[in-house]
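Format notes (please read before filing issues)

Several people have asked whether sequences and structure tokens are stored in separate files. They are not. Every record keeps both together, in the order shown below: the sequence lines, then the token lines. Line labels are part of the format and must not be stripped during preprocessing.
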Amino acid sequence: MNSIKNSKITNSLAHFVALTIVGGLHESIFAGALPQTTIFIIRSVNLGLVLILAGMFYRSLTAFRNYFVIKQDFYNIMALNAISETVKILGIFIFSVVGICVIFGIKGTTIVGSLGAITAVLVLVFRDTILGFVTGIHVATSKSLKVGDWVSIPKYSIEGNIADISLLTTKINNFDKTVSTIPTYDLLTTEIKNLQIMSESNTRRIKKSIYFNINSFKFLNDEEINRLKDINLISEYLEGKSIEIRKEKESLAHNDKIVNGRQLTNIGVFRYYAQKYIENDPDIDQKGVVMVRQLDITPHGLPLEIYCFANDSKWERFEQIQADIFDHLLVASKEFDLQVMQVAVKV
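Then the structure lines:
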């Protein structure tokens, strides 16, 4: 009822009833009038009825949209936007044709018959409209996007919240307080990352690497292992691994050679330390993936990637959590005699 009231369909209905009554009584009111006057009155009444019907149709579409706005059903709003905008454009065209026929007394079949010759032109003119209609239906049925979602569009270097999805354009409020507008049909053809789930779950992914100089990698001797045992997070690990490796070496020939058999390395122990560090960080979501892994070697060194999820998706807090982790690991790597790579910049 609220959606009908706000769209003012009842006003159009009242106008339609009033004009219908006038159309039915005009012969008795204007009895004996000139034939041309009668024709003018009939055509004026019919044109008025066409305009009222067009307005009633437009307001009905608005009423449907208002209903879903009240229900906050954003996916149906998108579908209805696509349908209603398309129907409005087609309705304007159809009612314009009907209006011309009424005004000049032309048969509708005459105009409709000539439309076949301009069909290709109409398709070309309404290309974006047709694509926007298809995209709106697809997005609504797949439920991949909706107004309010936090999205990232690499093609346009856009990241922000969707403010509106209409038939032809989609408006996005960027985080830098600017507004971007892209063609709606791009939602169907362009890579779009929907980051809304991070906001809803209040978690955000950390995926960042530290590059180490491979020349700083080495096997750890007993003295270095004993020194690293003072680090609480890895003391038990080092103690257990030392005993395990010592037992294995007893049965090996040339066990005095450090390269024979398994050995602890500074990069391997640091990787274990980094894993334990983020596992004990209260700002990291321990229900998600928590992983420290090596990536493919690059000309800049060996990347050691930290992959986990911060338990706060707010941008400012997320950046602080991420920075705290890497501040600590970058400095802690010196305890393991690891060298972090720096790319020299030519001035």
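For reference, the curators noted about this record: The chain has a mean pLDDT of 79. The CA atoms of residues 228 and 235 lie 7 Å apart.
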